[in-house]
Amino acid sequence: MTNPQAVKFETPDRGEESARANLYGLLASLFYLPPSQTLLDAIAAAVPGGDGEGVLELAWKELAATCKQARVQQVKDEYESLFISVGKPEVILYGSYYISGFMMEKPLVELRSELARLGLERAETVVEPEDHIASLCEVMRYFITSEDITLASVTAQKSFFAAHLQPWVPEMCQALESHPEARFYAVLAKFARVFFEVESQAFDMA
């Protein structure tokens, strides 16, 4: 995984693929660790592309407005309250749980097998299992930006997305959006849900 705080905001003329890669990278950053004030300020100041009236643009504006009001310690406290626990967290960020009902189960084994086939492996500094939402978003970013034509193809992206993200991410986002203690992360979950819905529709039309 790349540096969680090293998020680039590309201008619209860099193209749709750059924008997609950046959004996957941003989601990876925000779900992996609580954001710094610098990152919150960058999101608040970022101007969306397009006409500003699409569902994704509207969700982005809501996230940007939330980031403008957010403060680091508050977001950090919320992150720890929702996602970190000695027992079962309030909201789980791992695909295996939603697909099979348990952590560290067959979906994770299958994911690790596919990543190994692609020549990808978890960095030594990353302690989270590979089915963490942040890790999966980072893999999608890697696909989009890869110089390998096969990996960067729509077919490869669609296959990975359909197998490892599409089956469970909407449920995770819904759990966050409806959680009574979620504020910043409820808005982030809404943006993520809308983004993944747009991705699903695009892949269906591909």
TrEMBL record:
Superkingdom assignment: Bacteria
Gene3D superfamilies: TorD-like (1.10.3480.10)
Keyword Cell membrane: no
Entry keywords, A to Z: Chaperone
Presence of the UniProt keyword Cell inner membrane in the record: no
PANTHER family linked to this entry: CHAPERONE PROTEIN YCDY, DIMETHYL SULFOXIDE REDUCTASE CHAPERONE-RELATED
Protein name: Molecular chaperone TorD family protein
